[in-house]
Fold this protein.
Amino acid sequence: MPQLYSRKCCGIALAAAALTVSFGTPALASSHREAPLLTGMPKVDATDLYLFRSYEPGREGYVTVIANYIPFQDPFGGPNFYQFDPNALYEIHFDTNGDAKEDLTFQFRFTNTSKGTALQVGDKQVKIPLINAGAINGVNPGTLNVREIYAITAVRGDRRTGTRANVTNASGGGTDFDKPVDNIGDKSFGGTDGYENYADQHIYNVSIPGCNGSGRVFVGQRKESFYIAVGKIFDLFNLNPLGPEVNGNPNNLEGKNVSTIAMEIPIACLANQSDPVIGAWTTASVRQARLVNPAPGAGINNATKDGGAWTQVSRLAMPLVNEVVIGLDDKDRFNASKPADDAQFANYVTNPTLPALVETLLPSAKAPTNFPRTDLVTVFLKGLPGVNQPQNVVASEMMRLNTSIAPTSQASQNPLGLAAGDKAGFPNGRRPADDVTDLSLRVAMGALCVLTGDNDALKVGCKPSDAPAGGLALTDGVRKTAQDYWNRFPYLTTPIPGNQAGESSTSGSSNGQ
């Protein structure tokens, strides 16, 4: 029987392997279209959150956080492509003391402005139907028909009532940042390397209020970073779960793009001096009321009238929580909730349905029998003691990172993260290449109960006999490595150009230097 991990030693190695369970029961896909309400609101649908010590050479003193939005983007999405919603509020929250409440929030607001580019057609000036009127280079060129800009506000304390200040451009102090238009195609950007040369001009050094030193920010389209055999998994696990871990199935997201909000922040701005563990999650909110008003001359920003208080409609930290853990009737409620209120969803962790479903579909994989699942509560809602659990933790769902653990270089990263001895990997934060699907599926089936041993060395309240399938190396058959991503900020690679849609392309698949 294939084993999940070697049990040849204990202590740090065992704790590292155990950390793979901090993801709890989620598994099998990223958070794409995970809740009923968001299926009709893709612009505010968060798909993935990454949180890790920067491993770009020379940037080890920083934390990178990446929040992806707008799932399943076909590269040929013209003429409007995939703009962020100017009527929405996108946020990245950090808990720096373990109390399940935000201590620092970065808020992103977008403004889209049409330039009304027109051509002389006969005796009339007629506005063009395209987003560009020619080749694009530089920031906000005249050939770009729509300018998309954003502003960033840093809020300390409560995200609605705390102290607010603008994040500014470290060069000149401006508060507006240009977002690059999506990768329309090679001709629009002057060749195969043209888009990344253009997009790189939108990486900004920024000054963060209350922080010493500058950070970096990039907002724009990237190649979809998540990898999974999602089609087979949602077809009642129509795959070989004990088959090859690499190239056993196609990555169904390989031909898609995604919209990214990426920040690199000095560790000293995030980590409490007495506790190096931080937590993070991302949310998106819209106004309570929306009146559709596509009146003549309304323009691209005024087709709707929005009013009322901000209403949170999307929430994401660990992948797949809402998709395969939270019950269908509570998915929208989870998206509207805060970590401090997660006790209301406790039954979905203590008595998870996913392992029972896996056993029904794969009878050889027997679900764990320890209820309540204290093993999942410990690592999923608190983090592992001595590794990524805050000193005064309040049980809540968020991604947690121990900022005192040094980053692993790109060449040395293991997609199985801590399970393979790579202490800087998932679930101590999450890097782009970490195989959260395989790890999470194994954890859901009781890997921690096997690892803790009969004497419960990890103090998680279960034993190997509680998890008959806890040692199986379950897999979806899809895996990437860190070399499939860049070794520099923003780490996610060049989006697939629209002109290559449906073609075999390696655009953006190589690492950046």
Notes: The radius of gyration is 23 Å. Residues 12-485+494-499 form one domain. The chain has one domain: 12-485+494-499.
